[in-house]
Amino acid sequence: MAKHRQSSFRRILVTRILLLFFPVLFVGQIVALNKTRTSLLKTAGQNLTESATIKGEKIVNAIATLKTSLLVASRTTVVQSGSPLEVQQFLTQLAQQLPNYIECLQLTNVQNGDIIASTCGNQAITELSLSIPNNSVDVKTILPPKAGVTGQRNTHNQLELVFSAPVYNQTGELKYTLNLQSALYQKTHSQPGSLTGSMLVIAEDGTILAHPLKERIGTNIKQHPNASQLQSIVKNAIAGQNNSINLSFEDGQELVCGYTTIANPVTNQQGQKWVLLAVTTVDNALFGLEEIKLILIVLTVGLIGASLLASLCLAPYLARPVEQLRDYALNIHSHHAAQPVPHNFQIREFNQLAQALDQMVERLKAWAEELEIAWKEAKSANQIKSQFLATTSHELRNPLNIIINCVRLVREGMCDSREEEMEFLKRADETAMHLLGIINDLLDISKIEAGKLSVVMELIDLRQILQEVINLQSVNIQQKGLQLKIDLGNEPISVMADAAKLRQVLINVIGNATKFTDEGNITISTNIHQSGDKPQVIITVTDTGLGIEPAQQHKLFRPFVMVNDSTRRKIEGTGLGLAISRNLIELMGGSITLESPGLNQGTTVTITLPIVDVLPLPPPEQEGGLENLGVSSGDSYPTLRDNFVRDDSIGVYDFEKTELDGENSELPLVENTYKC
Asked: Which InterPro entries match (predicted)?
């Protein structure tokens, strides 16, 4: 039964999805309108910038055309020496040929200022100037009179330009000036949505030269509200930028304008620039936005209706498989027999969901079995650790008892001689060192589990380290009467490793080979192997001892795990040596493996380390070589040299058991000792 305030899948499809769909459509419509508005304004700005550039080019071309036409007309024979009537007829014909924004053509006598001919009456269009440059046209501006000031106002109420060209007679004497008056700009009425814009011309000093509003002409932009925006436009345009900008005024009017610059045509203002603006209103720029808004509203309503219809039709089709899977999941705990999950659906995803549900049930069963196995393994591991603790306590208690007994015998004066006291103290010292080794192993394994064990890498000669370790272990090998075969080569082997930790590993491996070998031989060899582009040295320690079953070999490198064998339990040790050795070798960038064919078939331990590609290390001043395994002195102690036979081909040392009595029952230590 459905709980209170829970909704069914069908109801969610019909109601909640629709409730979420409405705001999505509403937000989408707003975003679309804003995006459209931004796009239209951007397009309008680009068009207005192009329009301003075109207007500027037209003004520059028109001024150049007028200058050329006026200069050509000033050099005609009719103007230079014709009668006033002929000149009047010529100017009338010329005015008809020039563009319609030409207001007046006038020929003036420079001597007395009389008007010889004119197309606009007898009123002079400009003051007479005697500083007209030779063979060029002088350009002046005539601003319309301000409001409330008397004076003749042109029909366009805009800035006008007056062009003046000198006229010389046949003797080369300045006789007349030919003047032309032209309006800079005529206001045209554009269709709604047109983005050509109205032209606005501002001089570099801020004077408005042309404006759609006649009362603004002749004023400075500093006198108007929002002057900062216009000053910014003038500054950017003078700097060489052609761009568009949106203008907002205090009265709420918003404009879009594009701007560019042209050279100032006025003769006495060369080097300055005019800023041309093509301006239109934001409403004109967004002329088509209302139609787009209407289309979006129609589409939104249509999508809402289609979504409602689709939800009502699809709800049963989609909800039925979900309900069947729900019933199967709710009743799966009561299925005593394995019943298949419903899967005959017409929707592939629901069939895949049913298959996944079936697989999940199978995985849960498998996981339950794995948990049971893991629980058994954890229980077994707990028993192994308990066995390890019992073994370790035994290994610790026996040396402690020996040390305590030896010290008490000496302390209580129960020894018969000084030599006997020294013998007990020596035994206590040896036992203490053995106990220290066990404790060091325990500390090392605890550091390994805590991740705090570290090595100090340095460049060392592996062959020298091996020689030192063999010297240390040779006494134990001799005492057991084993044959030692050595093949280390004659050249130094440079590796990066921790010398002390590497000695510890080698002592452990060779010591294990000696400990578990009662008869036969131990072979120690090195081999250079190329692994890819990196050379490696392989150290192999092979014995003919007890060996180990293949099924038990993977356990030897685990801490707290020892092979449960009655023969091995007769030999002392905690079983941590190989676990510590593996971690130390891996910290030095190498690897260690163990192989054995089986019980009583011997064991092979392989250690691999990367070789450093450097110059060979120089030999030490006093190398404890394999020829110096014993102490060559004149005393009565037997040396190892007296008790083995060497095969020079591979370095074989055949130790013989020697019966020693009294003070000669102990072999002397070799010179290269190992310090823990």
From this structure: HAMP_dom, HATPase_C_sf, HATPase_dom, His_kinase_dom, HisK_dim/P_dom, HisK_dim/P_sf, Sensor_HK_Regulatory, Sig_transdc_His_kin-like_C
Q: Are strands 521-531 and 483-487 parallel, antiparallel or unpaired?
A: parallel
Query: What is the per-residue DSSP string for 545-603?
Result: S----GGGGGGTTSTT-----HHHHTS---S-HHHHHHHHHHHTT-EEEEE-SSTTS-E
Mean pLDDT of 260-271: 78
List the beta bridge partners of residue 525.
Answer: 487, 540
pTM of the model: 0.45
Tokens 């995006």 belong to: 35
Lowest mean pLDDT among 511-520, 608-617, 637-646: 637-646
Q: CA 618, CA 460: separation in Å to the nearest integer?
A: 11
Instruction: Quote the radius of gyration of the chain (alpha carbons, Å).
Output: 55
pLDDT at 392 over 50: yes
Confidence of residue 286 (pLDDT cuts 50, 70, 90): confident
Rounded to whole angstroms, what are the CA distances from 342 to 10, 333, 402, 546? 20, 16, 75, 61
The Cα–Cα gap between 274 and 202 comes to 6
Mean pLDDT of the chain: 76
Q: What is the pLDDT of residues 75-97, one digit of tens each?
A: 888 888 888 898 889 988 888 88
DSSP assignment of 240-294 equals T--EEEEEE-TTS-EEEEEEEEEE---GGGTT-EEEEEEEEEHHHHTTTHHHHHH
| CA angle (135 as vertex; 130, 137 as ends), nearest 5 | 65
CA nearest 258: which of 240, 235, 233? 233
Among all chains, which residue has been given the structure tokens 């070998």? 517
Three-state SS at 105: strand
pLDDT for 138-171, tens place per residue? Answer: 888 776 665 554 445 454 556 678 888 888 887 8
Percent of the chain with pLDDT over 90: 7
Can you list the positions of beta strands (E) in 476-550?
Answer: 483-487, 494-497, 521-531, 534-543
* pLDDT of the residue at 139: 85
Are the CB atoms for 593 and 606 separated by under 8 Å?
A: yes
Longest dimension (CA), the chain: 165
Alpha helices for 451-498 (secondary structure H):
462-479
> For residue 676, with 0-12 CB atoms within 10 Å meaning exposed, 13-18 middle and 19 or more buried, which class applies?
exposed
Task: Specify the DSSP element, H or E, that contains 663.
Answer: none
Q: Is 503 helix (H, G, I), strand (E, B) or coil?
A: helix
Q: For helices 577-587 and 418-450, what crossing angle results, to 10°?
A: 60
